[in-house]
Design brief:
alpha+beta, about 110 residues, globular, 2 helices
Length: about 110
């Protein structure tokens, strides 16, 4: 189960799309006592951001697009998804950390 770490060492280089894919695909996430498995469809990078197309499967199903800023890591993306899931579990979207990260969402 993924758990956030409070601090991380500065990175010397950006993570590649393949590294982000490998870091995220298959993760088991937990928020609000509920659990999901993360599946990555694709990760692409342009000059402004890295975009990941994802599916969350578990107690509810979600397909989403995650936007990572150039300095963000896979760990930042995971923390953003967990914050978003926690907000959903609490029936609120108050997470300032998540704003602008989930840019599209399809729910089943």
């Amino acid at each position: 189960m993924w758990t956030p770490t409070p601090a991380r060492a500065p990175r010397m280089r950006a993570e590649t799309p393949q590294e982000i894919f490998e870091a995220l695909d298959g993760l088991e996430l937990s928020a609000g006592g509920l659990e999901w498995r993360l599946e990555v469809f694709s990760v692409v990078t342009d000059e402004a951001a890295t975009w990941a197309q994802l599916r969350l499967s578990g107690c509810s199903e979600h397909t989403l697009t995650l936007k990572l800023r150039p300095a963000d890591t896979a760990q930042d993306g995971t923390a953003a998804i967990v914050a978003w899931l926690a907000g959903r579990a609490e029936a609120t979207d108050s997470s300032e950390y998540m704003k602008g990260r989930v840019v599209s969402l399809v729910e089943k």
